[in-house]
Amino acid sequence: MMQLRKIALEKQAMVIGGNTTGIISTGKAMMGFFPYWLDRVYKPGRVGVMTRSGSLTNEVTAEIVKAGFGPSSIVGVGGDPVPLTRFAEILPLFEKDPDTDAVVMIGEIGGTMEEDVAEAIEQRIFTKPLIGFMGGRTAPKGQKMGHAGAIITAGKGTVEDKVEALAKAGALVADRPSMIGQLLQKVL
């Protein structure tokens, strides 16, 4: 994966994965392993979603729709320790997208992608409202949870670190998926 990421960066290409559910631009296109019915259930909206978790994507997107919004695009970056494209690399695309007014990020324990997002917000690379949710709040340190990317090592990648960095940068962070709709209503 590291070699493939290096080649993609050299070629200025964006490769999503590995271990990803794929990408949906609601009402336009769908690629990957999302359930076939998602495109019909989730009508187009103005909330971008970027996610490390396939199963939480369905729950969070349902909360977005229940709150009266819909997804503009959903990008699953995958759960591997070395993702080919990181959240912070996707943010500029959502920033430029006239069909996206806010972004919901579904993060997890392990790695530093969510902290990189906080840095992008602080550096004004991304200026739209961002709402985060971190899966794995009760995961024991050092134990793999579900896939290779969801492991806390060397004191990095904890939910607490991610929540603190995002809040400091000005993002809102939901304690549970059911809060996401309320937070969207607050910022949009």
From TrEMBL:
Pfam families: Ligase_CoA. This is ATP-citrate synthase/succinyl-CoA ligase C-terminal domain-containing protein. One of its GO terms (cellular component) is succinate-CoA ligase complex (ADP-forming). GO terms for biological process: tricarboxylic acid cycle. Residues 50-171 form the ATP-citrate synthase/succinyl-CoA ligase C-terminal domain. Gene3D superfamilies: Succinyl-CoA synthetase domains. One of its GO terms (molecular function) is succinate-CoA ligase (GDP-forming) activity.
